Amino acid sequence: MFYGCLLQTRLQAGQGYGNTLNCVLTVYRNESVVGFFKGMSFPLASIAVYSSVVFGVFSNTQRLLSQLRHGDPDSTPVLADVALASMVAGFISVGIGTPVDLVKIRLQMQTQPYIQANMKVNPTVPGFPVYQGPIHCFRTVLQKEGIAGIYRGAGAMLLRDVPGYCLYFIPYTLFCGWITPDGCISPNPSSIWLAGGVAGAISWGTATPMDVVKSRLQADGVYLNKYKGTLDCILQSYQNEGLKVFFRGITVNAVRGFPMSSAMFLGYELSLKAMKRDQTETNP
């Protein structure tokens, strides 16, 4: 779930953006079209590994639970097994996703002024990035902050992804069951696409509050360390900006969650079908 866009990061961790449209116009005016793609090279390079691990863990955990419960790994899993497999996938995803998300957010936020109590604090010269690229960012954070720095925001990400993946895979499973015609062994591609999109919108929409906290914690170290941890970030954000701060970027999250998840689930299901077909042909 860590593949977000610059707009989401700026809205959640930045200052001075009234709404999504204002954020779009400000980024375009100050940084042109290139600005919308800042920090995405590292996530794009690792998306295949991340997705395969998450979906692989979910699928294999689900098969293991079906084997233990029914004696057949291919039997239809009960909802409790789907939920447990989702939680395991969410837990594992944090180990891979936190460093990648941190690099992405640091690169996206490094040219933004840090504003506190109507005062701008700019330790670096405006217009000159702190990091030269994803590898330099990763190496710099590791040298200055150690492993703890690389995994800054992991607690918030855990609180986001464990329930987030439950609200990702469970709705998908339920919607697939509801919209698949009776008598069909497996859902058709259009059903997969629709169910995956709805599940993605639900998951990303409900994950927004902890996504805000995670983004703020990871962006914090670009200039100075304002937050001591997840709870401190929640309290400071609430005290300074009220409850509405935790819903920043919810529209962007929900809208982008639909097509992204549709493609992910469609690719996942088609890959499973292809592998099962090859296995059947190999072992008639």
Automatic annotation (TrEMBL):
Name of the protein in its database record: Solute carrier family 25 member 48
Main location: mitochondrion
Cellular component, GO annotation: mitochondrial inner membrane
Coiled coil residues, start to end: none
Domain of life: Eukaryota
Transmembrane segment boundaries: 39-58, 78-100
MF annotations from Gene Ontology: transmembrane transporter activity
Solcar repeats: 1-64, 77-178, 187-274
Organism the protein comes from: Strigops habroptila
Any Pfam family hit: Mito_carr
Protein's membrane topology: Multi-pass membrane protein
Secretion signal, residue range per the UniProt entry: none
Key words, A-Z: Membrane, Mitochondrion, Mitochondrion inner membrane, Repeat, Transmembrane, Transmembrane helix, Transport
InterPro entries: MCP_dom_sf, MCP_transmembrane, Mitochondrial_Carrier
